[in-house]
Amino acid sequence: MRSFFIALLAALLCATAVNAEIRLGIIGTDTSHVIAFTKLLNDPLSPDHVPGATVVAAYKGGSPDIESSATRVNGYADELRTKWKVKFYSDIPTLCKNVDAVLLESNDGRVHLEQVKPVFAAHKPVFIDKPLASTLADAREIARLGKESGTPWFSVSSLRYGDIATQMKFPDTQGVITWGPGPLEPHHQLDLSWYAIHPIEMLYALMGKGCVEVTRIYTEDADLITGKWNDGRTGTVRALRPYGAYGAVVFRAKPKDAKSAGSTIVVQSNPKMLEGYRPMLVEVVKFFETKEPPVPNDETLEIFAFMDAAQRSKEAGGTPQ
């Protein structure tokens, strides 16, 4: 009988451990994402609540030379502290000791490499919000350090999980055009990584990997970035300034038995297609549970190689790279 109760107690303890909320720590409180994410994760009464993880700790961070960071970091930190009872730590290693996983949210991609090093050292799985880094070299170093430490990580734009990227993905896609906001930030060496990462991520969600050549035409109002894929397909991104709506056109192969003229089906996104953070956060929590990145790290690195080639094309007057 005693052995029965011991086994029952062990089973209950195991079930409790499995169902326990994942304790999350935030690095960087200088983006509105930290408030939006915390509400979705920590408020069980929200109709969009994402269960399974709770933000319990934060490290403030902030970049004094980026206005949108310097002017918001304290306000968002105060809201996390007062409304959501998040505990703040003065350094990242101490934060890591008190959490199970990390949301690296600093809006400045330049600091991500240094900020993720103690996370990898603590072997805490980490979601790195966009942009993964401000240079291709930093992005590759993050990937190298993550692999070397055996720590799972992934980085993604929320637009990958919006209606456009999920409802317009077809196995017979021949080419894609996406568009969205593309304001620039002068401190980021890859200037497209600051905001145009969103329509670029949509392009990759619809096209997949395999880009081998990139051409970028820059004007004050917009960028036009076209990639050639290794199977002959082409994908184009129009980055709009100062801002603009998101959208896409997908070119599909027409069935051979189709009676209408032409060989291509053109599918355009509906302006009412929804975007939001919840679908991405569901994937983030699942990642923390399984330790399996929903977007392969090599695809994320190719997106940065795409932006690096686009940067070189811009500097070379629009020649292919």
Concise synopsis of the structure shown:
The protein is an alpha/beta fold and 321 residues long. It has helices at 2-19, 33-42, 67-70, 73-83, 92-97, 112-121, 136-149, 163-167, 197-207, 278-290, 297-315; strands at 22-27, 53-59, 87-88, 101-104, 126-128, 153-154, 173-181, 211-218, 222-229, 234-240, 247-253, 264-268. Helices cover 38% and strands 21% of the residues.
**Over the alpha carbons, how many angstroms does the gyration radius reach?**
21 Å
The residue ranges in which pLDDT falls below 50 over 5 or more consecutive positions are 4-18
Strand order of the largest sheet: 3-2-1-4-5-6
Q: Average pLDDT across residues?
A: 92
Strand segment count = 12
Order of helices and strands: HEHEHHEHEHEHEHEHEEEEEHH
